[in-house]
Amino acid sequence: xxxxxxxxxxxxxxxxxxxxxxxxxxxxxxxxxxxxxxxxxxxxxxxxxxxxxxxxxxxxxxxxxxxxxxxxxxxxxxxxxxxxxxxxxxxxxxxxxxxxxxxxxxxxxxxxxxxxxxxxxxxxxxxxxxxxxxxxxxxxxxxxxxxxxxxxxxxxxxxxxxxxxxxxxxxxxxxxxxxxxxxxxxxxxxxxxxxxxxxxxxxxxxxxxxxxxxxxxxxxxxxxxxxxxxxxxxxxxxxxxxxxxxxxxxxxxxxxxxxxxxxxxxxxxxxxxxxxxxxxxxxxxxxxxxxxxxxxxxxxxxxxxxxxxxxxxxxxxxxxxxxxxxxxxxxxxxxxxxxxxxxxxxxxxxxxxxxxxxxxxxxxxxxxxxxxxxxxxxxxxxxxxxxxxxxxxxxxxxxxxxxxxxxxxxxxxxxxxxxxxxxxxxxxxxxxxxxxxxxxx
Length: 441
Known about the structure:
Layout: H1 2-19, H2 24-34, H3 38-42, E1 48-50, H4 55-58, H5 66-70, E2 80-82, E3 98-100, E4 106-108, E5 114-115, E6 121-122, H6 130-143, E7 146-161, E8 166-177, E9 190-192, E10 195-200, E11 204-208, E12 211-223, E13 235-244, E14 252-256, H7 258-263, E15 276-290, E16 305-318, H8 320-339, H9 349-372, H10 382-409, H11 413-440
Parallel strand pairs: 7-14
Antiparallel strand pairs: 1-2, 3-4, 5-6, 7-8, 8-12, 9-13, 10-12, 11-12, 13-16, 15-16
Membrane topology: Multi-pass membrane protein
InterPro entries: Neur_chan_lig-bd_sf (IPR036734), Neur_channel (IPR006201), Neuro-gated_channel_TM_sf (IPR036719), Neuro_actylchol_rec (IPR038050), Neurotrans-gated_channel_TM (IPR006029)
Keywords: Membrane, Transmembrane, Transmembrane helix
C-alpha cells in the first residue's frame, strides 16, 4: 500500500513539472515511474495555457469564460506560452489591435487620419458612403448647369425717388425649369439683390410633364444706380436684379422666358410714373464675380465665386413739359430780368443794380431747390452747368451797368449807349451759345 502511494505522488509531481516545460527528461522519469515507454509520452500533443490578466490573475483564480476568448480580445500584456521540447516559455507574437471607422475600413492604431471635405476625420482611403455623392456631383458637372427660365409682368411703379435712388415695384414673376438627378432647384432660394421685399405671396407650384413651374407676386422697394449727368434731360433705368443664393454659375444659369420675349409685353399698359414716360423694358443675363470664398475653409483664400444673374430693366424718359415749367421757364425769366438793364438809361444806376442783384439771388435760390431733389454726386449735372452760365452772365450784366454808369457820369453818354447797344444782342446770343456748350459737355 505504501509503495502504491509513493508511486502516485511521484507521478503527480512529474506531470506538474512536465506541464511547466520540463521537456524530454521528465518524460523518461514519468515513463520509468508509470512503467510506460518514454517515446509514448514524448509524442503526446502540445498543451497551450492562456494566462489571464486582471483581477482573476492577481487572485490566482481560473480565468473567466470571457477572458478565454468569448468576448475580450487579447491585449499586448497577455502571454501565450507553448510547452514542448524547444522554445518553452517564450511569449507568442500578436498583431496590433485596430480601430475601425464608423462607416467602413480599418486603420491600425497609430496611423494618421485624413481630413475629408466635410470637415470630419476619417480614413485616408475614401469610404463607400462618399462615393455616390461624388459621382452625382461629377455627373451634374458633366451634364452642364441647370437652366431656369424667368418671366416678369409689372403691374405698378411708384415712388421714384432720385435722391434716395429707389423706386417701388409691384409685379408677377414665374420660373420654369427641369430638374435632373442630383440637380434639383428650389425657387425659394431666389434673392432680389437690389431690393427689399415688402410683400410676397406664397409660391404657387405646378408640374407639366417634366417641366416644373412656380410663380408668385412681389411688392417691394428697389434701388438703382441712376446716372444724373444729363439731368434734367436724362433717361433712367429701373433695375430688378435676381440671383440664386445657393447654386453658383457652374450649376445654374438663368434665361428670359422665350414666350414672354416673343409677346414683348413685360409691363402693363396703364403703368405710369409722374414726370416720366415708360419707354419699354430690357432683359439680359450676366455673371457677377464675388472676390471672396464666403468663409469656406475648404477653398483657397484667393478663390472667386461666380453667380449667374437675371436682370430686368424698365426704361424711363423724362417728360419735357413738366421740366419746362419747373426749370426752363424760371431760368428764362431770371435771364430776362438781367437783360432789361441794357434798356434802362445808364444814369439809373440804382434801378439797374437792384435788378441784377435780384436776378442773381433768384437764380441761387432756384439752384438750391433743384439740388435738393438730387442725391449727392461727385460730378456736375447739366443743370449745374447751366446755372453757372447764368451766374456768369448776370454778374456780367451787373459789371456792364457799373461801367456804363461811370461813363455817363463823366459825360461820355455815347460810350455808355454804345455799351448798352452791344450787350443787347451779344448777351442773349452768348447766353444761348454757352448753355448749348454746357449741355454738350
